[in-house]
Amino acid sequence: MGKRLTLSPDKKIAGVCGGLADFFGLDPTLVRLGWALATFCTCFSGIIVYIICWAVIPKGYQ
Fold first, then answer.
1. CA neighbours within 13 Å on the CB side: how many for 36?
2. Which of 14, 30, 47, 61 is most buried by its number of CB atoms within 10 A?
3. 57: pLDDT strictly greater than 80
4. CA distance 48 to 30
5. In whole numbers, what is the pLDDT of the chain averaged over residues?
6. φ and ψ at 46, to 5 degrees?
Protein backbone atom coordinates (compact mmCIF):
# COMPACT_ATOMS: atom_id res chain seq x y z
CA MET A 1 0.00 0.00 0.00
CA GLY A 2 1.30 3.45 -0.88
CA LYS A 3 1.47 6.66 1.06
CA ARG A 4 -1.67 8.16 2.55
CA LEU A 5 -2.35 11.86 2.89
CA THR A 6 -2.95 12.57 6.57
CA LEU A 7 -2.69 15.55 8.90
CA SER A 8 0.75 15.83 10.43
CA PRO A 9 1.61 15.96 14.12
CA ASP A 10 4.26 18.52 13.02
CA LYS A 11 1.72 21.31 12.90
CA LYS A 12 1.57 25.05 13.29
CA ILE A 13 -2.21 25.42 12.88
CA ALA A 14 -3.92 22.15 11.89
CA GLY A 15 -1.24 19.99 10.26
CA VAL A 16 -2.44 20.42 6.66
CA CYS A 17 0.82 21.80 5.26
CA GLY A 18 2.87 19.32 7.28
CA GLY A 19 0.76 16.46 5.94
CA LEU A 20 1.13 17.69 2.36
CA ALA A 21 4.88 18.02 2.87
CA ASP A 22 5.12 14.45 4.20
CA PHE A 23 3.03 13.12 1.33
CA PHE A 24 5.07 14.82 -1.39
CA GLY A 25 8.46 14.51 0.37
CA LEU A 26 9.02 18.25 0.74
CA ASP A 27 10.16 20.53 3.53
CA PRO A 28 7.13 21.67 5.60
CA THR A 29 8.45 25.23 5.75
CA LEU A 30 8.48 25.48 1.95
CA VAL A 31 4.92 24.17 1.76
CA ARG A 32 3.80 26.68 4.39
CA LEU A 33 5.49 29.56 2.56
CA GLY A 34 3.99 28.45 -0.75
CA TRP A 35 0.53 28.19 0.79
CA ALA A 36 0.85 31.67 2.33
CA LEU A 37 2.00 33.13 -0.98
CA ALA A 38 -0.84 31.45 -2.86
CA THR A 39 -3.33 32.70 -0.25
CA PHE A 40 -2.22 36.31 -0.61
CA CYS A 41 -2.13 36.11 -4.42
CA THR A 42 -5.66 34.70 -4.68
CA CYS A 43 -7.47 37.22 -2.45
CA PHE A 44 -7.36 34.95 0.60
CA SER A 45 -9.26 32.04 -0.97
CA GLY A 46 -6.46 29.80 0.31
CA ILE A 47 -7.92 30.15 3.79
CA ILE A 48 -11.16 28.52 2.64
CA VAL A 49 -9.25 25.73 0.91
CA TYR A 50 -7.15 25.21 4.07
CA ILE A 51 -10.29 24.83 6.21
CA ILE A 52 -11.77 22.35 3.72
CA CYS A 53 -8.52 20.33 3.74
CA TRP A 54 -8.51 20.38 7.53
CA ALA A 55 -12.04 18.95 7.57
CA VAL A 56 -11.46 16.33 4.86
CA ILE A 57 -7.94 14.98 5.47
CA PRO A 58 -7.90 12.29 8.19
CA LYS A 59 -5.65 12.50 11.24
CA GLY A 60 -2.44 10.50 10.98
CA TYR A 61 -1.83 10.52 14.71
CA GLN A 62 -3.74 9.99 17.95
1. 8
2. 14
3. yes
4. 20
5. 90
6. -65, -25
